[in-house]
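Researcher: Please predict.
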Amino acid sequence: MRHERLTFDGWIAAVGTGSGTRVVVGHWLRSPFGTFSDVMLEGADGQRLLLAPTDRTAEYVAGVYHFDEVRTVPVSVHRADSAWDVAAGPLALRFTVGRRGVLGLALGAVPAPLARRPAWAALIDVPARLLPGVRTRGSSRPDCRQWYAARDLRPIVRAAASLDGVDLGPLAPVVPPVRFGFGSAPAAPAVVRVVSTVERSGERGPAGTAP
């Protein structure tokens, strides 16, 4: 049995909207697929949509998380100071991040080699569970386990989003928790610098593709 462990280093941003749609953006600076971004959406009706930039990334992400629909579309993320612009097929999202709080400063003080260890993720998972839906380790599929090492956190203070040209409403908490994997983003909209490690078992080829 082959065990495959892949690491993704980048940012995860999560916002809620007045319409009830919640949006999670992954902006990966380093990954087995190179630099790329993907977007996960869950509507007020519970429908879960993945927007990924290539068939390869779409296949991999859909094999780790759960979606009702998967689309391969151009996905771009542009950052300028505190402003982020995200374009992903039918989605347009712009948000502004605020200053780090106490938790963001504390996360940045954890040495990177320690933060990336599974044992650290297990330790931090205990206080993380005090936040509804939040987990730092777990499994979303039988052949897959994951752990997250957060290295920074900044609040999202403003956001505007539209889907298929329809305004999704003002910034709101990420409530109810999203249901893509074993855990959700925090309810308070935020962008988190994170190292995500995914370990999968089974007969797989490079980067999770079938041999």
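Model: Confidence is low (pLDDT under 50) at residues 203-211.
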